[in-house]
Hints:
- The chain is an alpha/beta fold.
- It contains 15 helices and 16 strands.
- The protein has a single domain, classed as TIM Barrel (Alpha-Beta Barrel), CATH 3.20.20.70.
- Helix 2 runs antiparallel to helix 3 and helix 10 crosses helix 13.
- It starts with a strand and ends in a 6-residue tail after the last helix.
Amino acid sequence: MEIEIGRGRKGRQTYGFDDVALVPGGTTYDPEDVDLSCDLAGIRLGIPVLASAMDAVVDPRSAAALSELGGLAVLHLQGLCCRYQDPAPALERIVSAPTDQAVGVLQEVYREPVKDDLLLQRIEEMRKLGAKVAVSPTPAFSEHAAEVIGPGKIDVLVVASTVTTARHISSRYQPPDFAALSKRVQAPVIVGNCVSYQGALDLMRAGADGVLVGVGPGAACTTRRVLGIGVPQVTAAVDCAAARDDYHKESGRRVAVILDGGMRVGGDVAKAFAAGADAIMIGSPLAMAEEAPGRGYHWGMATPDPGLPRGTRVHVGIAGPMKEILFGPARKDDGTMNLMGALRLAMACCGARTIAEMHEAEIVVAPALPTEGKAQQRAQGVGGTR
């Protein structure tokens, strides 16, 4: 529905997680009978969770931990692990920097160039630790990265930037051919990020095996403020899921929709799947894990940009082991732990036994839902009220 913005100009009404609620189904299920597994570009995952390709979230060790729990971690090929043989001193500088100096320190630390031998070394380390290997270059770096990696060494290539389109025009480099990249590394290619029906459909038609959906919703991202672009995640998910369904009818090929960013608590995760996501990519919730390299801090991929940073460093704290964040038991009452337990129970209440069935859950516009009847929680600062 379009509403009038001003004389002669209208815009669509869009919705984020706090604007909507899920309606319990007429049939409910035992949560233990709910199946959280998903198929992601031909790879079977025990849980529909990807860890964001951010240096505070993923290194070979944390990738192995998430893989063991059934998820998939994505290593940033232009991150610290591929710039420094030992990233620990660089990480120490970042997490210990005063708040007013953090961006400057990040920019300085990331001036060290990416090294091809470290790129291959980190992939080998992930393999030796038993992790599924997913790695992420930016579009401009993707051709070189694919050439260095070669065939058969990774499970998934994730080509991602703030916004990626199938019709990018550049005088500096040739935009990547996603089908050719897939053939070169002999692995599926996930592409992002997008937020619109047409943007997602174009990427699917261009050969993407999965699309990342989300521009600016992450806890450490400032893109929406700095650039003024983005679409709230529920609307973005619904639109891109519609593109997926239409493309499946058109081609017979089903492309995964992965909602990337903005999910902080279990309710957000449940709403993501009701809006049509096949899987989610999360950063800050996993940056809170003991296994995360950021040691209780989190920063966005674009924070160190030398010209126009589009992120910041945030303190998220350490909540506990990754297993407790995903599967509990929860030590907090704010919904930030046992995310998969929350998803399982929400699906059971909505009458969904699988992720695909959760796509059919009823959604209502309910901006009062987070605050209705919660005056005491807000006054006392408990329950994660916001």
